[in-house]
Amino acid sequence: MSEFARLQPTKLVPPLKVKTVGGPCWRLCDQKPKHFTLVLFYRGLHCRFCEAQLREFEARYDDFHKLGVRVLAVSTDTQARAEQAVEEWGLDQLTVCWGLSLDQARAWGLYISDGRGLSNRGLPEPRHFVEPALFLVRPDGTLFGGIIQTMPMARPSIEDLLAGIRYIINEGAEPRGTSSGTCAAPTCDHLISTA
User: Fold this and answer.
1) Residue 122: which pLDDT band, with cuts at 50, 70 and 90?
2) 13, 30, 61, 121: which has the highest count of C-beta atoms within 10 A?
3) Are strands 25-27 and 17-20 parallel, antiparallel or unpaired?
C-alpha cells in the first residue's frame, strides 16, 4: 500500500471534517450544493501565493455561488493563523477552515512540505503544511476532478476554473481519468501503432 492516496474520479472522496473561522465544524458529508463543493487546500498564512488566490476566490464568490458551487479553503494552520488570514486578506464570504491533520492530507493525496524558516511573506513557516490542491466534489460525495500541486506557484486561473465549471454544467460533461489504462477487449490491439 502506498503512503499517499490517489483519488479516483466517480469514487467517494475521503471524509473531511475541519473547524472553520467564526463558525462550527464543517463536514463535507453535510454539503448539498446544486452542482459541486470546491475544496481548495492552501498552504497557510505564510504564503503570498495563497493570499492572492484566496483574495481572488473571495472577489468571485458570487460567481461560484450562481453556478451552484460551494467553495471552502482548508489548511493545516492553527486557529490563530487562520483567523489572521481571514482578517488581513479580507475574506468575508469565503469559508476558511483550519486544523487539517497530516493524516487527512495524506488521505486526500496532498503533497506535504517541511517548513524552511521565513516564507516569502516574511512569516515563519509551520513545521509541516500542505501544498495547493483543489477538488470538485459532487453532492453525492464522489470526485468529479482535481488538481494537485507540488509547488506554490503556477496555480490555475480563476477564469479558467469558472469557465471549466460552466462547461461541465452546461454540456453535462462526464469525469475523465477513470480508465485503468488496460484494455480487456480483444479488438484493442488495432489501436496500437505498429510504425
Assistant:
1) confident
2) 13
3) antiparallel
C-alpha cell recorded at residue 71: 467553495
Extract the runs of DSSP E, i.e. beta strands, from 62-169: 69-74, 95-98, 112-114, 128-130, 133-137, 143-148
Task: Tell me the pTM.
Answer: 0.89
Q: Hey, what's the cell of 89? A: 486578506
Buried-state track 169-192, b at ≥16 Cβ within 10 A, e below 16 = eeeeeebeeeeeeeeeeeeeeeee
Residue 162's pLDDT is what?
98
Cβ contacts of 127 within 8 Å, gap of 6 or more: 114, 115
Using only C-alpha atoms, what is the Rg of the chain? 18
Tens of pLDDT, residues 150-175: 999 999 999 999 999 999 999 999 99
**Helix, strand, coil shares, percent, the chain, to 5:** 30, 25, 50
Among candidate residues 125, 124, 143, the one with its CA nearest the CA of residue 134:
143
Q: Are 4 and 150 spatial neighbours (Cβ–Cβ below 8 Å)?
A: no
* DSSP β-bridge partners for residue 145: 136
